[in-house]
Amino acid sequence: MKTNTNEWHSVAQRIQAIAQTGLAYATSPYDTDRYQELSTIAASMIAGPEPQKIALAVELFAVQHGYATPRVDVRAAVFREHRLLLVRERADGLWTLPGGWAEVGQSAAESVEREVLEESGYIVRAVKLLACWDRNRHPHPPIPVHAYKLLFRCELLGGAATASTETTEADFFAEDQIPPLSLTRILPEQIGFVFQHLRDPDAPTAFD
Fold first, then answer.
1. Which CATH number goes with the domain that contains 84?
2. Do 196 and 98 reside in the same domain of the chain?
C-alpha cells in the first residue's frame, strides 16, 4: 500500500513519542538503549537519507523530555474593513496569519495576542476560537513534531504595522488578493475558512 509523506511522518512522530515517553520512564540501561535506538530510527525516517539532516533531527529529539504530547501552534484571524492581516516571514519570504508556538505560563488566547503584537505591531483581543486542527491531517509540508493549530478570531484594538525579528512586513489583504502563502504555517483552504467565518460569524468552531 502506498503511504503519502504526511502519513509517513505521522508514523515517525508516533515512534518518537513512544521513544521519548519510554526514555522518561525507563528503569534499566537495556530499556534506555532500546528507546534511544527507536528515537534514532524516527529521526532517520523524518530526515531522509542525508546524514546532516539526520543529525539535526537527532539533536531536536534529544532536547525533548518527559511524556510526549503535541505542541500547540496559535494563529490569529484579524480583519480591518473585510481585509485579513497577514505577515511576511523572514525565513521563507512568504505570508501567513500571525502566530507561533504557545508559551508556557500563558493561555492560548494570551499567546496569540502576544504573537500578533510581536510579529505585526498590532494590538488585538482574542474573541472566538474558530478552529482546532490537527496539523497532520492537513496537507502542510511535514515537520518533525506533532502539532495542534488553534485559530482565533481577534478584534483589532490599535497599533501600526511593524517588522520584527521573524517578519519583514504586515499588511491587510482582500480575499481575492492573498499573496503567496507559507504553507508550513497556513494553507489556502484555511484562509478560505477564515473568510467564510467572516461572512458567517455564528458558524461553529471547526475541529478534527
1. 3.90.79.10
2. yes
Place of cell 492537513: 138
DSSP string covering 139-178: TPPP-SS-EEEEEEEEEEEEE-----SSEEEEEEE-GGG-
**What is the tens place of the pLDDT at every residue in 76-94?**
999 999 999 999 999 999 9
Task: Mark residue 26 as left, alpha or beta (left: phi above 0; alpha: psi -120 to 50; beta: remaining).
Answer: beta
Residue 62: the pLDDT is 59
Backbone torsions φ then ψ of 134, nearest 5 degrees: -85, 115
pLDDT at 5: 57
Q: Round to whole Å and give the CA distance between 177 and 18.
A: 44
Instruction: Let me know whether 131 and 160 are in one domain.
Output: yes
189: CB partners within 8 A, 6+ apart: none
Q: What is the reported pLDDT for 51?
A: 60
Number of domains composing the chain: 2
Judged by DSSP in three states, 14 sits in helix
> Could you tell me the residue range of the domain that residue 15 belongs to?
5-62
pLDDT > 70: percent of the chain: 86
Residues 109 and 136 in one domain: yes
The answer on 50 and 87 residing in a single domain is no
Same-domain check for residues 140 and 100: yes
Distance between CA 136 and CA 75 in Å, rounded? 16
Provide the greatest CA pair distance for the chain.
62
